[in-house]
């Protein structure tokens, strides 16, 4: 699937710029559990998937750069020494941001052209943005021999998101997209940025995504608000991040925070714990426990952290009605996007149909179902 995508992008590049490009594939990600814990120095449990961004990139000798988003049929020309963020929500900010952050490190790049296209549904909570950022960072590193490590590249991608896109994201998405391993999920410690790979084979069960096909507005500002609430609680506790807090510590400052923020802090502390427990459950092949942790994660995201929405909650209620779904929760930043379901293989299609029908009846809108494969991270498909 991604092979066809990269070839399409290559052909388009040759047609447009009359030269052979370097080809990169950069995947999106799922996250089994550990939501909104990354920017709190906690644990997350993501995996790269077989959907992502294919990018074709090559040096330009016209005195300027051109970027083409094939999906959107959108093209933009820019100059390296005149970069500034475009208007909010524009795709070019992902490209400009990465270029600017590379230049901020005093690393010299020359003019280039890039064409990219993706097969990750936008706004699905599967990190098409991190995939795009990583493809640009990886491509420029190859093209101009910058000698960047993968860790340096994902930190550049993250900064691009902070400073050009305006979302103060953690490191999960960029990490998972860059470091993904086929058939594995990565238990990532976001404090050290080191991960342990877990082979994922749920035998009679599998992971299935259901996309609500909604993305509520204001999700970016709500995200940044959550992050600053967590930081203010950590400051009250005189610790760097909530990773270092216990429920007991939080109780001690109960009078100093609003009840809403107290619940948010509590959610983070509990979710970090759940993520570690989930890894243990996977090690022990204990899918019942894993499923219960996943349901508990959704409960926290819905009621404590308050980043869910009616459409997501509805799909979780549908899942809970079906005994073949061991666990389900919203995935990613929230306010729309996908649910991730741990479901018996033989029942997955049936559940997807029943839940989709009910969803349509309730919201008069389709939801989409994806069966994903865990795949390798950002990589070169064809070199110089
Ligand atoms: C978005 C961010 C990530 C992470 C998740 C929530 O995907 O980009 O850094 O915080 O939300 O877990």
Architecture per CATH nomenclature, i.e. the level-2 architecture of the largest domain: 2-Layer Sandwich
Topology-level CATH name of the largest domain: Ribosomal Protein S5, domain 2
Number of domains: 2
Tell me the number of strands.
13
Query: What are the bound molecules?
Result: alpha-D-galactopyranose
Strand percent estimate: 15-25%
Q: Can you walk through the features of this model?
A:
This protein is α+β, with helices and mostly antiparallel strands and 384 residues long. The chain contains eleven helices and 13 strands. The chain has two domains: 3-198 and 375-382, Ribosomal Protein S5, domain 2 (2-Layer Sandwich); 200-371, GHMP kinase, C-terminal domain (Alpha-Beta Plaits). It has a six-stranded mixed β-sheet with strand order 5-4-6-3-1-13, with helices on both faces. Strands 10-11-9-12 form a four-stranded antiparallel β-sheet. A hairpin with a 5-residue loop joins strand 10 and strand 11 (336-344). It is globular. The two termini are 23 Å apart.
List keywords for this structure.
Alpha-Beta Plaits, alpha+beta, 13 strands, 2 domains, binds alpha-D-galactopyranose, 384 residues, 23% strand, 6-stranded mixed beta sheet, Ribosomal Protein S5, domain 2
């Amino acid at each position: 699937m991604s092979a066809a995508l990269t070839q399409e992008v290559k052909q388009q590049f040759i047609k447009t710029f009359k030269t052979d490009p370097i080809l990169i594939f950069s995947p999106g990600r799922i996250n089994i559990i550990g939501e909104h814990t990354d920017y709190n120095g906690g644990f997350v449990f993501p995996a790269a998937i077989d959907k992502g961004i294919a990018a074709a990139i090559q040096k330009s000798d016209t005195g300027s750069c051109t970027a083409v988003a094939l999906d959107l049929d959108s093209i933009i020309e820019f100059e390296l020494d005149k970069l500034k963020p475009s208007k909010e929500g524009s795709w070019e900010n992902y490209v400009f941001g990465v270029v600017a952050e590379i230049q901020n490190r005093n690393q010299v790049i020359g003019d280039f052209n890039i064409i990219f296209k993706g097969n990750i549904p936008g706004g699905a909570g599967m990190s098409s943005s991190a995939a795009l950022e990583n493809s640009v960072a990886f491509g420029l590193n190859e093209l101009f021999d910058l000698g960047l490590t993968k860790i340096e590249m994902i930190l550049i991608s993250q900064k691009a998101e902070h400073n050009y896109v305006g979302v103060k994201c953690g490191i999960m998405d960029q990490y998972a997209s860059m470091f993904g391993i086929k058939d594995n999920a990565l238990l990532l410690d976001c404090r050290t940025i080191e991960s342990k790979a877990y082979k994922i084979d749920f035998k009679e069960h599998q992971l299935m995504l259901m996309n609500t096909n909604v993305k509520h507005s204001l999700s970016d500002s709500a995200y940044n608000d959550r992050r600053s609430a967590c930081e203010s609680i950590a400051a009250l506790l005189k610790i760097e991040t909530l990773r270092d807090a216990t429920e007991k510590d939080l109780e001690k400052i109960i009078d100093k925070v609003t009840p809403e923020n107290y619940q948010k802090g509590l959610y983070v502390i509990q979710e970090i714990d759940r993520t570690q427990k989930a890894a243990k459950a996977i090690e022990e092949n204990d899918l019942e426990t894993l499923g219960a942790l996943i349901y508990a994660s959704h409960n926290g995201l819905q009621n404590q952290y308050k980043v869910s929405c009616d459409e997501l909650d509805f799909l979780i209620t549908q899942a809970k009605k079906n005994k073949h779904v061991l666990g389900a929760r919203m995935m990613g930043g929230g306010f729309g996007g996908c649910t991730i379901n741990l479901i018996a293989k033989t029942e997955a299609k049936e559940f997807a149909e029943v839940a989709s029908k009910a969803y349509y009846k309730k919201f008069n809108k389709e939801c989409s179902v994806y069966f994903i494969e865990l795949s390798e991270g950002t990589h070169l498909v064809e070199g110089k």
